[in-house]
Amino acid sequence: MNDDELLAQLKAADPASRRGAPQPDLDRLLEIPMSTDSQTRPARRRLIPAVAAGLLIAAGGLIWGVTAGNDEPPIATPPVPTVKLTVGSGVAGKCRALEVADLQRLPVAFEGKVTAVTGDLISLKVAHWYRGGPGDNVEVQAMPEDVLTLLGVDFKVGESYLVSAANGQVSICGASGPTTPELRQLYEQAYAG
Fold first, then answer.
1. Are 135 and 81 in contact (CB under 8 A)?
2. For the domain that residue 147 is a member of, what is the CATH number?
3. Which of 35, 69, 148, 172 gets the most CB atoms within 10 Å of its CB?
4. Transmembrane residues, as ranges (predicted)?
5. pTM across the whole model
6. CB 99 within 8 A of CB 155
7. Cβ contacts of residue 109 below 8 Å, gap of 6+?
8. Whole-angstrom distance, CA of residue 113 vs CA of residue 128
9. How many structural domains compose the chain?
10. Is position 53 within any domain?
11. How far apart are CA 27 and CA 186, in angstroms?
């Protein structure tokens, strides 16, 4: 196929040529870039670094102007308070199997790792809030025998627990305990969305 045949095929496929539109003057269109003075382009290229340098100087001046005279110390954000819970005392009763609906009624739920057990105070670092919060730390106040009797949990430093609460008291009957796949699944179902 030669150039003339290719040009004929292109013209046949071009919708503009079928509607009777005027054909472009290819010779004139090719002549324009070939006859343009190539000496005008470098002047435009020299302008770009000058504009960039001017913008950098202006940005530096703006930053200096905003920060100059700002001798005041930064405003400290108040620390997030520690959430405090208790384990109620009382007689342990019989509990039914924990259900998702039981957890959904509880306004506080989180997963945390025990950082310290000191006397009757258990400190946990929150890894994830399911509901409630917003503190990074939770302290549970309880006598060790109440924790074992009511929760059936022996909190150990470095271990992870799922804890729920209502009215400032840790939930009993299996709603709080060591992190297990089964308990985590109940928490995720209860607090999804």
1. yes
2. 2.40.50.120
3. 172
4. 47-66
5. 0.56
6. no
7. 103, 129, 130, 131, 132, 162, 163, 164, 165, 187, 190, 191
8. 10
9. 1
10. no
11. 78
